[in-house]
Specification:
Length: 378
């Protein structure tokens, strides 16, 4: 109903979904589902019924401009000491989750027969669930996984089930059972406690808001220049994280007076989740090979079991587990987005850093399991 090139019409629809989610989050059931979960489900349904397009220039603009700006805004009050002290535990959880991903992919090859492409399929799913879709493309090319029908099916499953996993983890973050069993040291993670979008932070002054936006935009601009200069344009989020946390730590006495910047960051991230939901194609996924469903299911179950066991043994709290799990399965932007939405200020940077580590490790892990399963390139 809304054309991809109808920028303002599409923006109005996305903002309406975000406003609806912020309002419903005040209800009893909405608090359990959370604003992000409501947005994902609503945008997903709107795209399936043709109300929203699955791709549009506006979606790319939100990814390109609003996501890094939101991360920079929320990190303006990051404490570098706490980032490192808490980040080490997120890294441990991430490595455990990666081991669970690898084990799940291997287990799936024992349960189902995926034919001649079994090793390649295991490789691409292991890679994408150790850092994100960038790894999927790189490993698919490296192992010669170029069958168009299988490749499109794998991409569809990765897309829609990945969204489902994000929704699941988003719900889990608000479950009282998980919070009771894995609630250790949460006071060190929470800046002001999980809050819903409509009540988070204060509105702030016009001066404070514009100053925060100027600082965040400047940090993103400088980070892009630095990333390009050193030849790592794909790791711009890493440069943003390092730069903003350093500035925030050095100037924490002055930046602590800012208010309202977290509200802007959350609004941008709400739009980001709406884009993710709208881009998922349920029908294409349903037409995919059933064996791939089994493999992704095994990976997700194994990953979560590894995470929960490690959380119990190592006394990791639920925020660290959720952040590390999303950094592993969905990549750094999603991990940062959830940390922002739940006000886990000290886990935003660790989520980005471990997710970027996943970009690096995912290719090696994917190609490694390809070799382990006896795969050979054409």
């Amino acid at each position: 109903m809304i054309a991809p090139d109808n920028i303002f019409g599409l923006l109005a629809a996305l903002l309406a979904i975000c406003a609806l989610a912020a309002g419903l989050e005040q209800t009893r059931w909405g608090k359990r589902l959370s604003g992000a979960g409501i947005i994902l489900l609503t945008a997903l349904a709107a795209a399936q019924f043709g109300v929203l397009p699955r791709s549009a220039p506006l979606y790319g603009a939100i990814w390109t401009y609003l996501v890094p700006l939101a991360i920079a805004l929320f990190l303006l009050k990051a404490d570098l000491v706490k980032v490192f002290s808490e980040g080490g535990r997120v890294l441990v959880a991430f490595l455990v989750g990666m081991a669970g991903t690898v084990f799940g992919a291997w287990l799936a090859t024992l349960l189902v027969d995926l034919g001649d492409s079994e090793a390649a399929i295991a490789a691409v799913f292991t890679a994408t669930y150790t850092g994100g879709s960038l790894n999927f493309v790189a490993v698919a090319e490296a192992v010669g996984f170029d069958d168009s029908s299988q490749l499109s099916a794998a991409l569809a499953i990765d897309n829609i089930l990945g969204v489902g996993f994000i929704i699941l983890l988003n719900l889990a973050a608000g479950w009282s059972l998980l919070q009771r069993r894995y609630g250790w040291r949460m006071e060190a993670v929470l800046h002001a406690g999980p809050q819903d979008a409509a009540g988070a932070g204060s509105g702030g002054s016009l001066f404070g808001l514009t100053l925060a936006l100027a600082l965040a935009a400047g940090a993103v601009a400088v980070s892009a220049i630095v990333a390009d200069a050193v030849g790592i344009p794909d790791y711009r989020l890493l440069v943003i994280t390092v730069l903003v946390t350093a500035v925030a730590t050095a100037g924490r006495r002055y930046l602590s007076r800012l208010s309202g910047e977290d509200m802007l960051a959350m609004m941008f991230m709400y739009l980001f989740f709406a884009v993710i939901g709208a881009g998922a194609d349920v029908m294409e996924m349903l037409s995919a090979a059933p064996g791939m469903f089994v493999m992704v299911g095994c990976i997700f179950v194994s990953h979560l079991v590894f995470m929960l066991v490690a959380g119990h043994l190592l006394r990791l709290n639920y925020a660290e587990l959720v952040t590390a799990s999303l950094a592993c399965i969905a990549g750094p932007p999603i991990a940062a987005a959830i940390a922002i939405l739940f006000k886990w200020r000290n886990l935003v940077a660790p989520g980005i850093l471990t997710g970027i580590l996943g970009y690096v490790l995912g290719n090696f892990v994917g190609i490694g399991i390809f070799a382990l399963l006896g795969g050979s390139t054409p």
